[in-house]
Amino acid sequence: MDICDIRAQINDRLTTLDFAQRLWQLFRALVSGTIDGFKKAFGKTAEIIMEAIDGRVEEFFLRRSSWMCLR
After folding, report:
1. How far apart are CA 68 and CA 39, in angstroms?
2. Which comes out higher in pLDDT, residue 18 or 66?
3. Are 39 and 46 in contact (CB under 8 A)?
4. What is the gyration radius of the CA atoms in the chain, in angstroms?
5. How many Cβ atoms are within 10 Å of 59's Cβ, its own excluded?
6. CA within 20 to 30 Å of 33's CA: 5, 8, 15, 41, which one?
7. What DSSP string describes 2-16?
8. How far apart are CA 35 and CA 50, in angstroms?
């Protein structure tokens, strides 16, 4: 495998990760809108749930991006 192949492979992986992050932003807007609807009933708990979801997704992307660079 030469340097051009490696560069192309890294670029493909980063493109996939970028797409996943953009897709998450769209999905997050839907989830956040739904959770906002529960704020009246659950108050601060709805915010805590969204923060927990954000944290987990961020961990996933950080793990995934470091894993993709190591492969």
Report:
1. 37
2. 18
3. yes
4. 17
5. 10
6. 15
7. -HHHHHHHHHHHHHH
8. 7
Whose tokens are 């495998």? That residue is 1
Cα–Cα distance for residue pair 26/29, rounded to 1 Å? 5
Distance CA 53, CA 40 (A): 19
The pLDDT tens digits for 2-60 are 888 888 888 888 888 888 889 999 999 999 999 988 888 888 998 899 999 999 999 98
Domain ranges within the chain, ordered by starting residue: 41-71
What string of DSSP letters covers 30-55? HHHHHHHHTHHHHTHHHHHHHHHHHH
71's tokens: 């492969």
Placement of tokens 């108050």 in the chain: 43
